[in-house]
UniProtKB/TrEMBL annotation:
It comes from Gossypium tomentosum (Hawaiian cotton). Keywords: Glycoprotein, Membrane, Receptor, Signal, Transmembrane, Transmembrane helix. It is found in: Membrane. This is Leucine-rich repeat-containing N-terminal plant-type domain-containing protein. InterPro entries: Leu-rich_rpt (IPR001611), LRR_dom_sf (IPR032675), RLP23-like (IPR046956). It is a single-pass type I membrane protein.
């Protein structure tokens, strides 16, 4: 078995087929974060069978690299930001990690899910993909990034990270999101999602629903997310009061002793239509005015100057 690793060097130039001709035992090729160009002849076949190929930031396009279809043992593939503007060809067998983000790949992803039962990391962001992902059933998927595409799927039973930012999703947040029992990071920012905020999030630590058109009140159930560290609801159409229990979220950490740690380190509800007083004696007083601007709120931490400015704008 052989490994070739020269990643993160910012190398430039052209890689030729002859550079690989003697690497018949190569199983791992790690060369991401260089600016190399590789455009082999269409009839060229790699002289090795790799398990890991990382060529992120190379120039491999505009066609999807045809030579990859001959790699039968491939489990990790990174060809992100590689100038590919083609369709995705039929899939391999044992994929565990797939990064093809920051290309201009279009069309629908092939139905590979029955073969990809061990897939854990999938990053397809920054492409022009459309359609839906077929149900994954018992997939082990841990991270899914789809930003800047126009589709979504369901039944991600092991999913911890869901990033759907900057798409064209509209309608309501589907109730199926309540089935994502292991979700830790949820990012739906910069879409056109409407309706209400679900009440069913389990162990989320970071939630960003900003820059949508969500309406109604902030559900008090969010205050029960005891491990929540970051919450951004800015740029929506939310109304009503800030739930009194949001600022009291605590993470109990047990080492040799028990201690209550106030753990909410990012909070933003700006530019909604919230009213009333900001709950006092909570962490909410530790955030800056910008976290609350563009509402009809009062009380600390809002400064007198900010309140006067808001009143002047309302009079105008």
């Amino acid at each position: 078995f052989e490994t070739l690793d020269f990643g993160y060097n910012l190398l430039e130039g052209v890689v030729l087929e002859t550079h690989f001709s003697n690497l018949t035992r190569l199983t791992t090729l790690k060369a991401s974060h260089n600016r190399l160009r590789f455009e082999p002849n269409s009839s060229w076949i790699l002289p090795f069978q790799c398990q890991i190929i990382e060529l992120g930031h190379w120039h491999l396009g505009p066609k999807f690299p045809h030579w990859l279809k001959f790699q039968k043992n491939l489990s990790v593939l990174d060809i992100s930001d590689a100038g590919i503007s083609d369709f995705i060809p039929p899939c391999g067998e044992w994929m565990e990690v797939l990064y093809i983000d920051k290309n201009l790949i279009s069309g629908e992803i092939p139905d590979c899910w029955n073969r990809w039962q061990n897939l854990e990391f999938l990053n397809l962001g920054g492409n022009n993909l459309i359609g839906k992902i077929p149900p994954l059933g018992h997939s082990k998927l841990f991270m899914l990034i789809l930003r800047n595409n126009t589709w979504i799927g369901d039944k991600f039973s092991f999913l911890n990270i869901l990033n759907l930012q900057s798409n064209n999703f509209d309608g309501r947040i589907p109730h199926k999101i309540c089935d994502l029992l292991n979700i830790l990071i949820l990012d739906l920012t910069h879409n056109n999602i409407s309706g209400t905020i679900p009440k069913c999030f389990g162990f989320v630590t970071n939630m960003d629903l900003s820059t949508n058109t969500l309406t109604a009140e902030i559900p008090k159930e969010i205050g029960r997310l005891v491990e929540l560290q970051s919450l951004n609801l800015s740029g929506n159409l939310l109304i009503g009061n800030i739930p009194y229990n949001i600022g009291n979220m605590e993470l109990i950490e047990s080492l040799d002793f028990f201690s209550n740690l106030n753990f909410l380190n990012h909070f933003n509800v700006s530019y909604n239509n919230l009213t009333g007083q900001i709950p006092t004696s909570t962490q909410l007083q530790s955030f800056e005015n910008l976290s609350y601007v563009g509402n009809h709120l009062c009380g600390p931490p809002l400064t007198k100057k900010l309140l006067e400015l808001r009143n002047q704008n309302e009079e105008i």
